[in-house]
């Protein structure tokens, strides 16, 4: 039998190999042919309904596997309708073979069947269980040949366990935590031996109980699975979306009721301290946590350990299981604090009791995770005495982790604060020391020495010193002395421990005579570690607190030190002095002149120090880099101060434009100089990216950005440097796709990220790494709902509009996409900590100074622009939203507040005002048309369905109409998503031959732009619409005049930077685009179009605005050259501040040449693009369906 | 001053200052998560009090029989925090866990011979070249921008389970093996 099976398997493998190969190499067609060929060898599947009665055998399994592969081939070949129908048929058979189900799992997401992803495993699991029960019954009846049946039953049991585990993992992947919890618990009940009956080795099935606990913990944070992502744009939305929304409504209703009850009982709404959770969410959280506790405590056993008294342990204890137990208790205390605030120590006694046992202390020595949890809980429980003593012991034994110091001080100062220096010594924590000093080998630094804690040496008696303030000081100083004696290069932590101790003594206002001079302590530290780059971060917090005489004394000390560049150590010391002085000074005392002097000084030192790094290989950073960065920072700050002085109220004469940007250009030269010497120093690159954008040379910005060579997740955290307001710099209108491509490239990660995380999440469960699971889910949420992801998406969308226009199909698709984006809760993952920020206290940050628009894009900016674009698309679309959507969603979309609008630039505000005015004007006209189109679509669909049913006996009609849409529209679906879309590929409308409509069976029925998937009730036309108007109101036309004025003013203003010229021009282009998009929808095209208001005046005026802008931008580009005169002027200008005097002409000149050439190209190309747009725009802005003219 | 703490999945959102370095590779998300899902205790971070990441180590435990060992997959310290003993502290932690928790025989790592500073640092920590793996890296280091392959040193340090130092040898640089024999 076994041999036969093996032979069968070998045959099957040989047959399937070419199919797998074809699928792997992307040859879907060949895979499909092979599947069909093989399937002919098998009997056809049983008719629906009878499947369950047919026992599964190897032939059935093979057929099902080939069918699953065929489905995959169909999906890859974009034959989704057929794939979906086949999937339904296969699922009706309830396959139980792992390979069949795993193969099918690959197709379910692209087929938009998220529910089946979990459902198919659960069904297979249930079926196997039933089959097993029947086998058992049979076994009970049959007396002979029992052994054979028993072997079968045992193999069936194995299958059941495997299917159950797979079902659990599918729930984990999809965030169905409640289901996962009960599934794991069922597995535990079915497969784990009862308590006390297991063998010495913990059985693997015990883990199911811990899975169940972990799932319950996750459920406490995520009671509901995430909202379904619509894979296909469907009108009306698919059932899964509706179900999710119904659940949400139910929860809202429950919240309302709970709140009413609470208020009735307490007279006021609850006061809570934690995250803003609704009452029903809190209730669910408590339930889930209580369940987790109850479950894990069924595993507790009390053991009598010899030395440490009664000890509670878990069955099959591991570090991660212990951690899980601790975390359950911690979360319960935390939820208690949040729900019934304020925080109370008493709530933390239970977790602390567990986590302060000797067992946990011992295990925590080798597990940073457990130690982290232990320390957190001890702190919340205010277990200060124990903490102080533990930390003192660790420090004494050589632990130099900074948390050990800070926890030690946190704990000790609780005692000092309460009782001054003469407290009851009995209550004070004690330093316990063995009289014999540990051997040098044990004394080494780091966590290893903690292990000696465990090694109890019986004699002699340890000494106990109560830690008074004086004794604590003695102890802390002794650590530093010990380190000095031991490691000649110096351990910083113990010396910083000394500083931190003295700082806390001062800040607590304790009467203290033993204190040394504080500034002396700081200068001693500087003398010791002044040549380390980290010194700035070490000392800055202390130095910034100095005032009056102390500050003067400190400053004098730094002043005394000669700033030299003679060797690597003195260069670093010089850099440290300059940074400490600059970062602890006040911005009030900073002027343009002082900044220029500082920059000049730094640049001089930089050039002097360069020879020190001459011999270094190119992969090394130059030791003097920071001097150039300091010089550039000072120039940028000088520029900023100059901007502040240029407010209109000031009476200073306005600088000419080239004078105004002079300081930025000087900074550019310094940064280019630094980057040329230190190729891999990213601070130069990033600052150059930002400056080139400000200065209107985005191609150079992109070039520098590419040199940073970002990979993976860095695209999410860093692409904002080059993609914020990317549409300002796009040359899409002129056919240059570099920025559009950058959006696609940087969004690739989102397409694969979710899959990656869910696969690893499953692994974390398999390996039982419970400490990781919540973090994985958090990461997934943060990246999936990343603000930068959607900022990039929005910019990509805007750039594409101007580049290639917006077809009617795309209007519908983008509308659904952007609405989905709008419903997300966004996380801001942008890394703002990377730019060097050597600024005086109170000065604007380098981030702000170098941001387009004066600050990084905010969430409000994003939401405002997003809502505006959804409104524009909604107006251009043929969808008439349901009555409910009109009242709830639309009204929310239309809500903007003044503060949010202030986040927009002047040009963006005007664009906003104009678009909204157009929408208000056109809505009464559009609504009846949308209504007519929808009514038409519904009746066409019904008629088509009826006709199809009549011609095909009706049997299969409904199963095909579920996925109507035609081929071209869906051509995206099977392709690898590029991450810019949320999976909502494909479209409701379509037009392979320019036609639009529904597909029923093999008939295609034309309607309007809209394809319906299911019959639906057509919502009524909104009642509050005004009378349809014919002419555009004059105020809309006036806005275009306003735009022209803004454009002209911006170009004429000497204080506007090149990016502003580009920005206002691009906004003009986008405004004109929107004017066409909104008016084109029903205005052009075939004879079926209804009468429409006269759009001509608006269009003519918009076009002349675009023409004007194009001409002016072209002129600006034409005016740039790099003739000998310009070169001379550039050099002269760069010499005017005196900062760059030390740099040779050639190097200064080269930067100018490269920059001006790039800027010229940008302006010329943009001018060309905008000129070209005057011809293409009327067509590209959704005037006509794709494929017709 | 620095705090030693576990590497968390969300640290990927803030490790740029460490990873924007010519020798440091940024891998796909799955790479880091795979390590965390299996050996979270061998993945640690050094963090400054302001919360800035100073450096990290990522490791695993692998091998059969006397070849069972800890492996340093990635170790990187941000430029401004170098020469403070952070790499040493992280390595020491990985060695201790490999020794005390996983009971491995040695710890090993791969390094580009062209990265002389790193090689020297590991030697100071007690590692020695066990063998030279021919054309292990897909290209010559970042400085060269070439596409030719580069060798790797497989460096090892014995742990307490290998008291006779059987996992190391004196002339490792001269023992040359092909990349296919080690992967």
From TrEMBL, chain A:
InterPro entries: NAA25_NatB_aux_su (IPR019183). Residues 966-982 have a biased composition (Polar residues). Coiled coil: none annotated. GO terms for cellular component: NatB complex. Residues 455-465 have a biased composition (Low complexity). Residues 39-59, 426-465, 958-994 are annotated as: Disordered. Residues 442-454 have a biased composition (Basic and acidic residues). Belongs to the MDM20/NAA25 family. This is Related to actin cytoskeleton organization protein-Laccaria bicolor. It comes from Serendipita indica (strain DSM 11827) (Root endophyte fungus).
TrEMBL record, chain B:
GO terms for molecular function: protein-N-terminal amino-acid acetyltransferase activity. This is Probable N-acetyltransferase 5. Coiled coil: none annotated. SUPFAM superfamilies: Acyl-CoA N-acyltransferases (Nat). The keyword Lipid metabolism does not apply. It comes from Serendipita indica (strain DSM 11827) (Root endophyte fungus). GO terms for cellular component: NatB complex. The keyword Cell membrane does not apply. Keywords: Acyltransferase, Transferase. Residues 2-160 form the N-acetyltransferase domain. InterPro entries: Acyl_CoA_acyltransferase, GNAT_dom, NatB_acetyltransferase_subunit. PROSITE patterns: GNAT.
């Amino acid at each position: 039998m076994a041999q036969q099976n093996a032979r069968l398997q070998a045959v099957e493998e040989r047959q399937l190999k070419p199919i797998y190969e074809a699928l792997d190499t992307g040859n879907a067609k060949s895979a499909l042919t092979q599947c069909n060929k093989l399937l002919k060898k098998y009997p056809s599947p049983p008719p629906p309904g009878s499947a369950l009665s047919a026992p599964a055998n190897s032939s059935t399994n093979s057929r099902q596997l080939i069918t699953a592969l065929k489905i995959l081939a169909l999906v890859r070949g974009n034959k989704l309708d057929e794939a979906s129908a086949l999937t339904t048929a296969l699922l009706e058979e309830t396959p139980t073979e792992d390979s069949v189900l795993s193969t099918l799992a690959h197709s379910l997401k692209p087929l938009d069947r998220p529910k089946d992803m979990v459902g198919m495993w659960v069904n297979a699991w249930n079926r196997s269980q039933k089959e097993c029960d029947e086998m058992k019954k049979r076994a009970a009846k049959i007396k002979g040949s029992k052994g054979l049946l028993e072997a079968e039953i045992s193999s069936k049991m194995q299958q059941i366990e495997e299917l159950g585990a797979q079902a659990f993992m599918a729930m984990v992947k999809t965030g169905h935590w409640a289901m996962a919890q009960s599934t794991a618990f069922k597995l535990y009940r079915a497969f784990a031996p009862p308590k006390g009956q297991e063998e010495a080795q913990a059985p693997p099935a015990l883990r199911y109980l811990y899975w169940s606990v972990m799932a319950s913990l996750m459920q406490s944070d995520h009671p509901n699975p995430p909202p379904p992502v619509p894979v296909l744009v469907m009108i009306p939305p698919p059932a899964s979306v509706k179900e999710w929304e119904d659940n949400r409504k139910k929860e809202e209703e429950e919240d309302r009721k709970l709140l009413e009850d609470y208020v009735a009982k307490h007279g006021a709404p609850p006061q809570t301290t934690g995250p803003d959770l609704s009452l029903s969410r809190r209730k669910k959280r408590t339930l889930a946590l209580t369940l987790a506790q109850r479950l894990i405590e069924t595993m507790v056993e009390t053991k009598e350990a010899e030395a440490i008294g009664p000890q509670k342990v878990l069955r099959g204890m591991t570090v991660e299981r212990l951690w899980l137990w601790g975390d359950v208790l911690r979360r319960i205390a935390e939820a208690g604090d949040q729900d019934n605030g304020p925080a109370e120590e008493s709530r933390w006694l239970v977790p602390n009791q567990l986590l302060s046992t000797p067992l946990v202390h011992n295990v925590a020595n080798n597990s940073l995770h457990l130690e982290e949890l232990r320390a957190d809980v001890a702190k919340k429980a205010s277990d200060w005495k124990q903490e102080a003593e533990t930390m003192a012991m660790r420090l004494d034994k050589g632990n130099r982790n900074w948390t050990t110091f800070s926890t030690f001080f946190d704990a000790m100062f609780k005692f000092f604060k309460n009782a001054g220096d003469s407290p009851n010594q009995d209550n004070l924590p004690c330093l316990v020391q063995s009289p014999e000093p540990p051997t040098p080998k044990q004394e080494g630094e780091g966590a290893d020495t903690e292990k000696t804690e465990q090694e109890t040496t019986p004699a002699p008696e340890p000494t106990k010193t109560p830690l008074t303030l004086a004794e604590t000081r003695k102890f802390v100083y002794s650590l530093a002395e010990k380190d000095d004696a031991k490691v000649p290069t110096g351990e910083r932590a113990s010396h910083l421990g000394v500083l931190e101790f003295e700082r806390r003594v001062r800040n607590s206002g304790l009467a203290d005579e033993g204190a040394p001079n504080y500034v002396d302590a700081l200068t001693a530290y500087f003398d010791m570690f002044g040549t380390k780059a980290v010194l700035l971060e070490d000392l800055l917090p202390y130095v910034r607190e100095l005032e009056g005489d102390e500050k003067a004394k400190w400053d004098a000390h730094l002043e005394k030190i000669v700033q030299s560049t003679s060797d690597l150590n003195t260069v670093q010391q010089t850099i440290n002095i300059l940074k400490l002085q600059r970062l602890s000074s006040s911005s009030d005392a900073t002027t343009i002149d002082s900044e220029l002097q500082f920059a000049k000084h730094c640049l001089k030192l930089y050039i002097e120090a360069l020879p020190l790094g001459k011999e270094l290989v190119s992969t090394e950073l130059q030791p003097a880099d920071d001097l150039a960065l300091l010089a550039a920072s000072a120039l940028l700050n000088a520029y900023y101060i100059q901007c502040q002085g240029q407010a209109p109220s000031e009476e200073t004469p306005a600088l000419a434009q080239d004078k105004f940007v002079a300081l930025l250009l000087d900074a550019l030269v310094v940064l280019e100089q630094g980057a040329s010497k230190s190729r891999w120093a990213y601070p130069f690159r990033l600052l150059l990216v930002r400056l080139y954008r400000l200065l209107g040379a985005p191609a150079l910005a992109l070039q520098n950005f590419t040199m940073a060579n970002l990979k993976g997740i860095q695209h999410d955290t860093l692409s904002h440097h080059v993609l914020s307001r990317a549409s300002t710099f796009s040359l899409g209108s002129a056919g240059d796709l570099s920025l559009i491509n950058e959006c696609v490239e940087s969004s690739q990660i989102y397409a694969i990220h979710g899959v990656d995380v869910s696969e690893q999440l499953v692994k974390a469960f398999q390996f039982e790494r419970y400490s990781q699971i919540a973090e994985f889910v958090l990461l997934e949420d943060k990246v999936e709902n990343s603000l930068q992801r959607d900022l990039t998406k929005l910019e990509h969308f805007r750039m594409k509009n101007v580049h290639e226009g917006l077809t009617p199909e795309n209007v519908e698709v983008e509308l659904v996409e952007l609405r989905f984006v709008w419903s997300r809760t966004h996380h801001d993952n942008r890394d703002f900590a990377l730019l060097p920020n050597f600024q005086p206290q109170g000065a604007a940050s380098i981030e702000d100074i170098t941001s387009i628009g004066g600050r990084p894009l905010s969430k409000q900016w994003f939401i405002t622009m997003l809502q505006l674009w959804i409104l524009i698309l909604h107006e251009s679309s043929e969808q008439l939203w349901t009555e409910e959507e009109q009242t709830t969603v639309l009204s929310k979309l239309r809500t903007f507040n003044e503060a949010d609008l202030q986040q927009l630039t002047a040009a963006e505000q005007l664009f906003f005002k104009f678009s909204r005015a157009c929408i208000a004007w056109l809505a009464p006209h559009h609504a009846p048309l949308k209504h007519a189109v929808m009514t038409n679509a519904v009746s066409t669909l019904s008629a088509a369905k009826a006709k199809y049913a009549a011609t095909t006996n009706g049997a299969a009609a409904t199963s095909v109409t579920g996925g109507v849409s035609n081929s071209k529209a869906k051509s995206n679906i099977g392709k690898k998503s590029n991450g810019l879309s949320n999976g909502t590929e494909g479209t409701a409308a379509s037009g392979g031959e320019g036609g639009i409509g529904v597909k029923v069976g093999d008939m295609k029925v034309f309607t309007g732009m809209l394809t319906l998937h299911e019959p639906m009730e057509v919502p009524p036309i909104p009642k509050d619409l005004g009378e349809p108007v014919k002419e555009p109101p004059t105020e809309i036309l006036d806005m275009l005049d306003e735009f022209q004025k803004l454009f002209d003013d911006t170009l004429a203003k000497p204080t506007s930077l090149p990016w502003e010229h580009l920005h206002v021009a691009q906004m003009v282009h986008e405004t004109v685009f929107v004017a066409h998009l909104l008016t084109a929808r029903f205005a052009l095209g075939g004879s079926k179009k209804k009468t429409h208001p006269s759009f001509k005046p608006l269009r003519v005026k918009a076009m002349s605005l675009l023409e004007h802008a194009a001409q002016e931008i072209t002129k600006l580009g034409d005016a740039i050259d790099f003739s000998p005169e310009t070169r001379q002027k550039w050099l002269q200008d760069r010499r005017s501040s005196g900062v760059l005097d030390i740099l040779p002409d050639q190097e200064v000149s080269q930067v100018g040449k490269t920059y001006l050439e790039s800027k010229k190209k940008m302006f010329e190309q943009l001018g060309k693009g905008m000129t070209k747009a005057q011809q293409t725009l009327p067509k590209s802005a959704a005037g006509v369906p794709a494929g017709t003219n | 001053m620095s705090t030693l703490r576990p590497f968390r999945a969300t640290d990927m959102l803030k490790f740029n200052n460490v990873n924007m370095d010519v020798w440091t590779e940024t891998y796909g998300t799955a790479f880091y998560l795979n390590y965390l899902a299996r050996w979270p205790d061998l993945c640690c971070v050094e963090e400054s009090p302001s919360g800035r990441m100073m450096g990290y180590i990522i490791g695993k435990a692998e091998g059969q029989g006397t070849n069972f060992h800890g492996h340093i997959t990635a170790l990187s310290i941000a430029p401004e925090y170098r020469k403070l003993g952070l790499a040493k502290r992280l390595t020491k932690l990985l060695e201790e866990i490999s020794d005390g928790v996983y009971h491995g025989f040695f710890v090993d790592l791969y390094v580009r011979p062209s990265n002389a500073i790193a090689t020297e640092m590991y030697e100071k920590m007690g590692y020695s070249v066990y063998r030279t793996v021919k054309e292990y890296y897909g290209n010559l280091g970042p400085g060269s921008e070439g596409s030719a392959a580069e060798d790797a040193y497989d460096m090892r340090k014995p742990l307490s389970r290998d008291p006779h130092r059987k996992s190391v040898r004196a002339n490792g640089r001269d023992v040359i093996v092909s990349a296919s024999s080690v992967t």
